């Protein structure tokens, strides 16, 4: 194993295939490169098709904590600079779940410093995903509330499994408020009227309901989600890349710039907001209700 390089995190080096993390695998084959680490984001790059599959892997519910968000950001940065990579499928390695959104425990009884670091990691992961030059598709094979919904909406195309799974920005139900850039992404996805209703109610939609308001693009049986994404990708890959990227960039730039221009203010605002007594009380009650569900 190569010795870790100074000035570069072990995590980043692992993603670049420079070190083999304890317990993890870095496998290189002619057609597939898998970056499997003890971490929570698995990347499988098919160098024949140029399609990378990025799987969130933090069972049981892929809640997004500081580590997951940092790993996701690094994985996206790496794919962005990989000239052979044309498209990325965002999926889950945990059955029945896409992502349960932000890890609520990162927001409950945390320190202001940790809150700021956590929020910066979320901002960076989102900027990398929403601003990606790649074709990005979400394979939603399970529940996708809140931050999970944000990740899915930030892709170019969404295929969701039919059945009991739900998707939406349910923040108000937790006594918190969707940040302006979550709102912007939803506005760009389903328009003003549906967003206004969805956000105030903290609505969680079934796959069919989500399809009817344009929150997802296709609903298929669970086993068909990945084949459907792969089929759709074939259409997208036929479009001249430069023209597609310019179109995507011009349509998303205003929303991306809005956050870029006030990242630090937004992070501070989050830390102050989340540490309010009333917000902490609501989060505490929500956590208790999740636990009670089981008993
Ligand atoms: C003036 C004001 C201006 C406004 C300014 C705004 C400033 C910023 C405000 C802050 C915004 C913050 C944004 C937040 C976005 C989010 O993403 S918040 C997270 C929301 N997520 C949820 O509500 C999902 C909750 N989870 C569920 O509903 C269910 O778990 C599930 C449907 C996803 C899956 O159900 P099931 O398969 O039955 O699993 P469970 O038994 O419920 O869960 C297993 C296990 O995981 C724990 N867990 C679930 N979700 C989370 C989570 N998000 N974070 C952490 N942990 C989670 C759950 O408690 C169980 O734990 P135990 O096994 O009991 O230990």
Automatic annotation (TrEMBL):
<dbReference type="GO" id="GO:0004165">
    <property type="term" value="F:delta(3)-delta(2)-enoyl-CoA isomerase activity"/>
</dbReference>
<keyword id="KW-0413">Isomerase</keyword>
<keyword id="KW-0443">Lipid metabolism</keyword>
<keyword id="KW-0496">Mitochondrion</keyword>
<comment type="pathway">
    <text>Lipid metabolism; fatty acid beta-oxidation.</text>
</comment>
<comment type="function">
    <text>Key enzyme of fatty acid beta-oxidation. Able to isomerize both 3-cis (3Z) and 3-trans (3E) double bonds into the 2-trans (2E) form in a range of enoyl-CoA species, with a preference for (3Z)-enoyl-CoAs over (3E)-enoyl-CoAs. The catalytic efficiency of this enzyme is not affected by the fatty acyl chain length.</text>
</comment>
<dbReference type="InterPro" id="IPR018376">
    <property type="entry name" value="Enoyl-CoA_hyd/isom_CS"/>
</dbReference>
<dbReference type="Pfam" id="PF00378">
    <property type="entry name" value="ECH_1"/>
</dbReference>
<dbReference type="InterPro" id="IPR001753">
    <property type="entry name" value="Enoyl-CoA_hydra/iso"/>
</dbReference>
<keyword id="KW-0007">Acetylation</keyword>
<dbReference type="GO" id="GO:0006635">
    <property type="term" value="P:fatty acid beta-oxidation"/>
</dbReference>
<comment type="similarity">
    <text>Belongs to the enoyl-CoA hydratase/isomerase family.</text>
</comment>
<dbReference type="InterPro" id="IPR029045">
    <property type="entry name" value="ClpP/crotonase-like_dom_sf"/>
</dbReference>
<keyword id="KW-0809">Transit peptide</keyword>
<protein>
    <recommendedName>
        <fullName>Enoyl-CoA delta isomerase 1, mitochondrial</fullName>
    </recommendedName>
</protein>
<comment type="subunit">
    <text>Homotrimer.</text>
</comment>
<keyword id="KW-0276">Fatty acid metabolism</keyword>
<dbReference type="GO" id="GO:0005759">
    <property type="term" value="C:mitochondrial matrix"/>
</dbReference>
